[in-house]
């Protein structure tokens, strides 16, 4: 790093070029730091459930006589913690697949309305179980957009999953999903009437593993990667993501995708 600084400083370059090179270097440093943090966070997230699996399985393997109730309880814990690791790894793989795919243009012709309907259908049972209603308001006759069907499905799944996880605490709650044309865009809004998000957290929500309340996220089956995946999919589709939230009133996630 130091050597390069000298080289830049001693070369008679126009000011603008010097500035560009310095900015570029600090951006690279930020990216390197983000990468280091990411690996540390991912390791930590996996180590916690793995330590539990090791602990429980050790006891089951070492103890001569394990009472049936204990064996069952530990077995269930091992299963749950291993599942949790699987969910984290699945999300990590999705994220890296979407990132690797960035330079290919989106291929499919996708009906966002169908994607939303299928996603809502998939979580309907969970919503009913929580006494939460998912209300769809999808503009009829919208043309398809260009995109990757699986990625867009994951985007909607993640937003709906969050609305259920954080916006559906008491029976009788309503999650609203609207899809409409807006100029040369299609605008998808997922709105809940849950607790909302403190303003200072909003700019960081799309960071990998960033959570407002880690315990609540984990208890609800969250990995902290959902919105990072949403942001990647939006970027890959040259769309826009906007998050609005009022504490105590709820949150709104708006995704705009280009119509053509
Ligand atoms: P997680 O798996 O933890 O839900 P996400 O990346 O999907 O991870 O979301 C990051 C954090 O943003 C969550 O942990 C939660 O604190 C907050 N969040 C996301 N969606 C909502 C929502 N609809 N209402 C309130 N908070 C939310």
Walkthrough of the structure:
- The protein contains seven helices and seven strands.
- The protein has helices at residues 2-10, 15-62, 68-100, 112-129, 149-167, 214-219, 226-236, and strands at residues 108-110, 133-138, 145-147, 174-182, 185-192, 240-246, 250-258.
- A hairpin with a 3-residue loop joins strand 6 and strand 7 (250-258).
- Mean pLDDT is 89; it is low at 1-11.
- Bound molecules: adenosine-5'-diphosphate.
- Adenosine-5'-diphosphate is lined by residues 158, 162-163, 165-167, 192, 194, 197, 205, 210-213, 217, 222-228, 251.
- Adenosine-5'-diphosphate (ADP) binds at residues 158, 162-163, 165-167, 192, 194, 197, 205, 210-213, 217, 222-228, 251.
Tell me the layout of helices and strands.
Layout: H1 2-10, H2 15-62, H3 68-100, E1 108-110, H4 112-129, E2 133-138, E3 145-147, H5 149-167, E4 174-182, E5 185-192, H6 214-219, H7 226-236, E6 240-246, E7 250-258
Parallel strand pairs: 2-4
Antiparallel strand pairs: 1-3, 4-5, 5-7, 6-7
Helix pairs in contact: 2-3, 3-7, 4-5, 5-7
The site of adenosine-5'-diphosphate has 23 residues, from helix 5 and helix 7.
InterPro entries: BphY/WalK/GraS-like, HATPase_C_sf, HATPase_dom, His_kinase_dom, HisK_dim/P_dom, HisK_dim/P_sf, Sig_transdc_His_kin-like_C
Domain Histidine kinase: 41-260
Enzyme class: transferase
